[in-house]
Automatic annotation (TrEMBL):
Provenance organism: Natrialba hulunbeirensis JCM 10989
Name of this chain's protein: Inner-membrane translocator
PANTHER family: ABC TRANSPORTER ATP-BINDING PROTEIN, BRANCHED-CHAIN AMINO ACID TRANSPORT SYSTEM PERMEASE PROTEIN LIVH
A Pfam family of this chain: BPD_transp_2
GO MF annotation list: transmembrane transporter activity
Lineage, opening ranks: Archaea, Methanobacteriati, Methanobacteriota, Stenosarchaea group, Halobacteria
Localization per record: Cell membrane
Keywords: Amino-acid transport, Cell membrane, Membrane, Transmembrane, Transmembrane helix, Transport
GO biological process, one term: amino acid transport
Signal is among the record's keywords: no
Membrane-related topology note: Multi-pass membrane protein
Domain of life: Archaea
Protein family membership: Belongs to the binding-protein-dependent transport system permease family. LivHM subfamily.
Positions of transmembrane segments: 36-55, 62-79, 85-106, 127-150, 181-200, 229-250, 308-326
GO CC terms in record: plasma membrane
Amino acid sequence: MPIELATEVPLVIETLERLFQPSTIARIIVEGLGKAAVYFVLAVGLTLVFGLMGVLNFTHGAMAMLGAYIGGLVMVLSVSDGTDALVRIALFMVVLAVVFALLTGFGSAFEYSLIRPIYDRTPMYQILLTFGVALILEEVTRIVVLSQGIQPEPPWSGAMGTAPAVFTERYDILGAPIRGLYAFEIVLGIVAVVGVWLFLNRTLYGLYIRAGSEDPEMVEALGIDVRQAFTIVFGLGTGLAGIGGVLLMWDPLWGPSALLAIDVLLYAFVVVIIGGLGSFKGTVVAAILVGIADSFTTWLFATGIVTFTGLPELTIFGLLVIMLIIRPQGLYGVEEVGGH
């Protein structure tokens, strides 16, 4: 047996032994579900807009960045060192509602004024327009935060510091130290999944949206204003991106920064493509898959088993490549999406 192989075998055995310990499994699952909740919130808005409407919205990541900065600003102005943890959580929920309302309105106005006139043109127009607006939003954000003495890179520590101690502390779960923030993210993720599902399947506008994405001409012939329904969908997708940005505000691996615009867009597209364009179920499953993979590879790096710092990103984008090769339409996708 070669010397290199002989030295690697004990390491592999030790890794497997540590992996199947209850504490390790608990850590990977809980942290993975917390990451999955964030990925779902970030991606579901893109699923609605890109999947159901066929609109390539490259401003999605910039909206999440704006949500993180707006949420951070409100929290920094509202929270002091003596603010109780329950008050901070209550303020955070208020911030979620405010950011969602603001960005939903902004997204609806953006769709009505700029996106709607180019529905009948080739997708390249949508790409150029939304990409250009994304660049403008990112640069304006950099100018504004720099004018306030805040560096756009690295993440804004002042906003991240408003998180209550119950979220920054670690708690023992089957012997694994789990950050409290992950449990909070899981709860919010479940609420988001249920809320979006109810909207799509139990509301009149949800019916209009699903029908309009399949056959807009027939829906319009029935007297339904499909364009208005799509304006609402675009606004909701933008608002959900903002909520995702607010969630990242307290996450130690993210935080408010100008880099969120591109990072969020990449991860959102990965989840949407793996799950299948326009598939709500696919987005949920893909977010869990990506979250668990991220958690597992992060554990490999944190324990020193693997020293390559880019392993989580490499694994996530590797999943995307494998999916595109094996099943290009995604886990639950169809061959064509969008009604335009």
